[in-house]
Structure formats: structure tokens, C-alpha cells
Write a structure and sequence with these properties.
A hairpin with a 2-residue loop joins strand 23 and strand 24. The strands form eight sheets. Strands 15-12-16-20-19-17 form a six-stranded mixed beta sheet, with helices on both faces. Strands 7-4-6-5-8 form a five-stranded mixed beta sheet, with no helix packed on it. It has a five-stranded mixed beta barrel with strand order 21-24-23-25-27. Helix 2 packs across helix 7 and helix 4 runs parallel beside helix 7. The protein is of the alpha/beta class.
């Protein structure tokens, strides 16, 4: 758009705004980070295994390595008797004498290499060393004291099959196999896989740097008691918490006052941080002191302003400074600010992080009450979704004023009413953008 004034004449749909904003973001450049720091990030490389996993046949149980055929016909009344020829602990390699021949068993610990000649492991509980439901009972705490000595016989009370309790080399991963694909989000399970294949450091898309600036003469900090006409600055803290929760680095720059000099100086300070995204709150509406858009326009370009949504209609997007830094100009009401961040800020951050899925999940739920929309805009209602009698049921959190921040804290979803829908009757289906999948959902 050619100017801010032209932008004020155009109000676009949520879908159009989403497409326009997302077109400006891409995964950030890869960086190598130590493995523990990669949690929550996304891989910027394919990862291949440098060895078989497991690297050798090993025991899945504490027990005895043996030949399965030596237990043919074994039972409580007719146990198989095998001579104990050795002992292999986890972390030890079998010696040349640790060979399982007919009538021989070797005591073995979980994770220890399976010796030559053995094709199965029987657990202690199914031998005279341990306890089984059908075997003569030994007290579990006495198992170590009663262990069968090398050179003595152990009784096996069950028949085992070839492969029982043996983890085969490479059954999880083969050497050279791709174990994780570029773009994979790194959860604790992926950390475990990366450690198993020797990735002490890993290449990921770096975390976005997000500068956050609230505006308004009425704002005081969280540790101050508001005076007449003042309120505490909750927006900066809420937005910074959202940014941090989503995996980016938040820089809370506090409050800029409603004058050109202070606002311009604070925005320059924000740009000096070389952020990947600058977020302002308030000052993008049509009030006498809504000067943020004017300052932003003097420092860059505004390509979008006003979205047909409720709450959060005043939403500016553009680029600032010589670095062409993208910015989101959020409304001042706290709920509007947080909803805009959910719809546009979070996907932008997910995209910069290189995540493959940048949208939150949306489900359908049966509404427990009528939901009205007289605004002519796409309406996002703070709601609670829970599972009742096997189906999802949605309720509002109460009052929906954009200043009612506690209604956001009660919500686990945003219930969506299309801009051309005026009423969703009780019992009908409503789309729910899930903010949280807590226990109440299941």
C-alpha cells in the first residue's frame, strides 16, 4: 500500500492478514548449539547414525543367557537344570571362556552382551534364583544373597523361545541410517536419539530475537501502585511470556510515552538490538494519541492495518529501518494483544524457528450455550473445551470484553465464529483453536 492513509481505508480478513504476514517470514539461519540447548528447537540438518543401535546383541533382562532348546519341556514340576558357567555384567565384554554350550547357562545383567552360543535369556524370576507365580517362592530381597554360584546348577521353570529377552544389534537403527529429518522439532525423545548417535552438538534454526515495546502515558510498571488514570503495564509481560513460551528470545523494553520524541527514541533502541521481529502494543487505533503508526511510517513502511476480527481489529504490520525489520503493531487492550499474538505472532515465530507445523490445532466442539456475533467480523471467543460423554463440549469463560484479562487466563481455546455467521445455537458445532491440551480436554 502506498501510504498509511490508504491502509486505513482497507480492512482485510483474518485469512488475508495471515497470508500477508507469513509471507515475510522464513526459517532463520542454522547455528550449532550444544545438545542440551537444542530442546524446543528444530533441526536444520538431517541426522544419521554413526553406529548400529543397539551396537551388539544384549540382554533385555537380568537373568541367564542360554540355548532355548535346553528349556524344551521345562515347567515347575519338571525344571531344566543348567550348569552356570560364568557371569557377564553390563559394560563388560564376554571373555573367551564365556561360551554357551548344551546344558550351560551364563548369568547376565540387563544391557550386557549376549555371549556366543546363547540365543535367549530367561529372567531370574523364572529360575531357582528368583521368584515366579508358579515357582518355589524366594523373597525378592534375598535374590542377591541367594544367587547361584558359578559352577553350580540353576533350575529353569519355563520354556523360552529363541530371541526371548534378547535385543538384537541394529534392531532400532542401522549404521548410516537417517534417524531424524531436517525440520524435526526437538523434544526430550529427540534429545535421547541425538545423544545415542553421538551428536554432542547439533545444527538448529536459531531462536528469533523479539523486541517488545508498550506505549502509553497511562502505564506504570508492575512494581508501582497506579495513580489516578493509570494502569499497570501487563501487555509487555504477557507478550514477552508468550514469546518466551514459544521458543524465542524476548527483550522487554518497557514503555514508550505518547510523544514522538520518546517513542522514536525507544524504537531506535529496539532496532539497535537487531531483532528479527519488533512488537509494539497500543497506539495503532484512531485516537488522538495513537501515534505509533505515524512514527512507524516515518521509520519504515506499513503494509497492513486493520483486520476484520474481534477482538484485535487494529493490527499494523510492516518493516522498519535499514535492516527492514518486520514489526507487529498490536492493539492496547490486553486480550486483543494476546489474541493477535496467538493468530499472527506465534506462527511467525514458529516459522522462524523452522517448525514444520506453525498453526495450533483446531477441533470442532458442541457448544453448551448460544454464541452470538453481531460485529460482522471473525469473532474469537475465549472458551473452555472439555470432553463430556465422549465428545468435545465448549463453553465461554464469561464476559468477553477485550480488557478482561482474567477471561484469557481461564481459557484453553478460542472459539471461532465466521464473520458472516451471527449465531451458533446451543448444541451446534463450533471451531475451537486450542491454546492448551490440558487434562480437562481428555
Amino acid at each position: 500500500m502506498e501510504s498509511t492513509k490508504k491502509a486505513t481505508l482497507v480492512s482485510i480478513s483474518v485469512a488475508e492478514a495471515w497470508d500477508a504476514i507469513m509471507a515475510n517470514f522464513a526459517p532463520l539461519e542454522p547455528v550449532a548449539v550444544p545438545l542440551p540447548e537444542a530442546l524446543g528447537m528444530a533441526l536444520a540438518e538431517d541426522v544419521y547414525s554413526d553406529l548400529d543401535l543397539p551396537p551388539f546383541d544384549n540382554s533385555a533382562m537380568d537373568g541367564y543367557a542360554l540355548r532355548a532348546e535346553d528349556t524344551d519341556g521345562a515347567s515347575v514340576g519338571n525344571p531344566a537344570s543348567l550348569r552356570v558357567a560364568g557371569y557377564i555384567a553390563a559394560g563388560a565384554a564376554p571373555g573367551p571362556e564365556d561360551i554357551v554350550r548344551p546344558g550351560i547357562a551364563i548369568r547376565i545383567m540387563t544391557g550386557a552382551p549376549v555371549p556366543v552360543g546363547a540365543d535367549a535369556v530367561v529372567r531370574f524370576e523364572d529360575t531357582s534364583e528368583g521368584q515366579s507365580l508358579n515357582a518355589p517362592q524366594l523373597q525378592p530381597q534375598n535374590a542377591r544373597a541367594e544367587r547361584v554360584a558359578v559352577g553350580s546348577d540353576v533350575l529353569v521353570y519355563v520354556k523360552v523361545k529363541v530371541g526371548d529377552s534378547v535385543r538384537k544389534a541394529g534392531e532400532d537403527v542401522r549404521r548410516g541410517e537417517r534417524v531424524l529429518q531436517k525440520g524435526t522439532p526437538i523434544r526430550p525423545a529427540e534429545i535421547g536419539v541425538l545423544a545415542a548417535v553421538g551428536k554432542a552438538s547439533v545444527r538448529v534454526h536459531r531462536r528469533p530475537r523479539v523486541a517488545i515495546l508498550a506505549t502509553g502515558d497511562e502505564l506504570v510498571d508492575v512494581n508501582e501502585m497506579p495513580g489516578a488514570g493509570q494502569i499497570r503495564n501487563s501487555n509487555s509481560y504477557a507478550v514477552a511470556a508468550q514469546v518466551t513460551a514459544w521458543g524465542a528470545i524476548a527483550y522487554n523494553l518497557g514503555v514508550a510515552r505518547d510523544n514522538l520524541e520518546d517513542l522514536t527514541a525507544k524504537i531506535h533502541r529496539a532496532l539497535d538490538l537487531r531483532p528479527d521481529l519488533l512488537i509494539t502494543s497500543a497506539g495503532v487505533s484512531v485516537g488522538d494519541y495513537d501515534i505509533v503508526k505515524d512514527v512507524l511510517m516515518s521509520l519504515g513502511t506499513i503494509s497492513m492495518w486493520q483486520v476484520r476480527m474481534r477482538p484485535g481489529k487494529p493490527l499494523a504490520f510492516g518493516h522498519l529501518g535499514s535492516g527492514n525489520v518486520p514489526f507487529l503493531g498490536l492493539p492496547g487492550n490486553p486480550v486483543s494483544s494476546m489474541v493477535n499474538m496467538e493468530l499472527f505472532g506465534r506462527p511467525a515465530i514458529m516459522k522462524m524457528l523452522g517448525k514444520p507445523r506453525i498453526r495450533r490445532p483446531t477441533i470442532t466442539a458442541r457448544t453448551a450455550q448460544p454464541l452470538e456475533n453481531s460485529s460482522g467480523r471473525e469473532h474469537y471467543i475465549r472458551g473452555i473445551v472439555a470432553k463430556e460423554d465422549g465428545q468435545y463440549v465448549a463453553r465461554t469463560t464469561g464476559g468477553q470484553g477485550s480488557n478482561l484479562l482474567t477471561s484469557m487466563s481461564k481459557a484453553n481455546a478460542l472459539l471461532i465464529i465466521d464473520e458472516d455467521t451471527q449465531l451458533i445455537a446451543k448444541g451446534e458445532q463450533v471451531r475451537a483453536l486450542m491454546l492448551d491440551w490440558g487434562e480437562e480436554v481428555f
